[in-house]
Amino acid sequence: MRIAVVAAVTLALSFVAGGASAAQCGRDASGFAAWKQSFANEARANGIGPRGIDALMGANYATATIRADRGLKSFKLSLDQFMAKRGGATIIARGKGLKRSNAALFASIEQSYGVPPGPLIAIWGMETGFGAVHGNQDMVSSVATLAYDCRRPAFFTDQLYAALKLVDKGTLSPRERSSMHGEIGQTQFMPKNVLQYGAGNLDSSAGALRSTANFLKAHGWSAGGGYQPGEANFGAIQAWNDASVYQRAIALIGQRIDAE
């Protein structure tokens, strides 16, 4: 359906001004189909092409994603509890071996981005067990569901626009597989971060690690600076994940890996 010029301009201005979808959010699947149509109209007005719109219209309400989003409890644990639950000791032990066996890669990354191996290996291990864990959700469906959901619509509206742009460009498949919140690759990049900081194939260890280092550098990482709480580079780790216990775990695991 052709959108009237006035309506298109109004929708475009509302997106630029507010950064969030004007489509009505919901708390269950009942309004998802209507929301998709409304969002598709806005997306067209904001430059999303046919491939992205088709991917959106093919999305389903992701009940598993909503269930996972409501069940995030591990971030409330103490640091010791969190390390035990997430296998911190195993990540450290395996991480030391990976640091040695991939020494040339990590040296190249540190030269380019200033980020040492420890925090990169910590993130890699925490996110996917060094690439062993692969999400099996429909990425566009997961992100669209969370953009529609009333809990955090503004954040996930930005992620959905990024996902649809990546589909338009052919960077991602319309039915790309992801983790529960739309994270992809070996270090679990959200779609907006793929657009902004992707530095290679995120399904490969080298591409994922370079992209992660690029993210940290873009968020203030300074070569040679410390990265424990209170030190210069801890703020870049905080930008990676909002949960305090996760941030401290990355710093601790990274420190023990880099100490060798």
Automatic annotation (TrEMBL):
The keyword Signal is annotated on this UniProt entry: yes
Naturally occurring in which organism (per UniProt): Labrys miyagiensis
Protein name: Murein transglycosylase
Superkingdom as given in the UniProt entry: Bacteria
Entry keyword annotation includes Signal: yes
Sequence ranges assigned to domain Transglycosylase SLT in this UniProt record: 32-226
Upper taxonomic lineage: Bacteria, Pseudomonadati, Pseudomonadota, Alphaproteobacteria, Hyphomicrobiales
UniProt xrefs under SUPFAM superfamilies: Lysozyme-like
Signal peptide range: 1-22
This protein's UniProt keywords: Signal
Pfam families tied to this protein: SLT_2 (PF13406)
Gene3D superfamilies reported in the protein's UniProt record: Bacterial muramidase
